[in-house]
């Protein structure tokens, strides 16, 4: 299916659907992790650090599509909670590297199990093949978007 003026509306728009699904998942994860004193955004940051996706505020902001200023404030909170440490880079003192503390690693792992249960609940009536296909399609879309300049003016 290719979109046309007559076939493009919110319920079939990939952007709209992904955005709504993201908002719903963040709300569910916020609720799931509330008792642990974690938000979904904090958890995503912990996991990004845990899996070495980035090690600076700017890198995390890029990787997570998050505002740099908001990311700095988030890291401030996470540092105050004892989950993250900051350290100046030896080679370039302008760069501040982030790393998880032991408490941060423990929080990331504990939260991961709750998030897994949450997603397994959402996908309970999906077959393993359907879940695998969904993930493959989303990964393909991400790669296509990363490599494309289709929307360039």
Adjacency order of strands in the biggest sheet: 1-2
Q: How many alpha or pi helices?
A: 6
* Rg, Cα atoms, Å: 18 Å
Structural class: mainly alpha
Oligomer: single chain
End-to-end CA span = 24 Å
**H/E element string?**
HHHHEEHH
Number of domains: 1
Helix content: 55-70%
**Sheet with most strands:** 2 strands, antiparallel
| Beta-strand percentage range | 5-15%
Residue stretches low in confidence (pLDDT < 50, at least 5 long) are none
Annotated CATH homologous superfamily: Winged helix-like DNA-binding domain superfamily/Winged helix DNA-binding domain
What average pLDDT do the residues reach? 93
CATH architecture assignment name = Orthogonal Bundle
Can you count the beta strands?
Answer: 2
CATH domain topology: Arc Repressor Mutant, subunit A
Question: In a few lines, what is going on in this structure?
Answer:
InterPro entries: HTH_MarR-typ (IPR000835), Tscrpt_reg_MarR-type_CS (IPR023187), WH-like_DNA-bd_sf (IPR036388), WH_DNA-bd_sf (IPR036390). Residues 14-143 form the HTH marR-type domain. The protein is mainly alpha-helical and 153 residues long.
Overview of this protein structure:
The chain has 153 residues and is mainly alpha-helical. The chain has a single domain (10-147), classed as Winged helix-like DNA-binding domain superfamily/Winged helix DNA-binding domain (Arc Repressor Mutant, subunit A), CATH 1.10.10.10. Helices cover 61% and strands 7% of the residues. The protein is built from 6 helices and 2 strands, in the order ααααββαα. Strands 1-2 form a two-stranded antiparallel sheet. A hairpin with a 7-residue loop joins strand 1 (84-88) and strand 2. Helix 1 packs across helix 5. It is globular and about 55 Å long. The chain starts with 13 loop residues before the first helix and ends in a 6-residue tail after the last helix. The model has no long low-confidence stretch (mean pLDDT 93). Keywords: DNA-binding, Transcription, Transcription regulation. One of its GO terms (molecular function) is DNA binding. InterPro entries: HTH_MarR-typ, Tscrpt_reg_MarR-type_CS, WH-like_DNA-bd_sf, WH_DNA-bd_sf. Pfam families: MarR (PF01047).
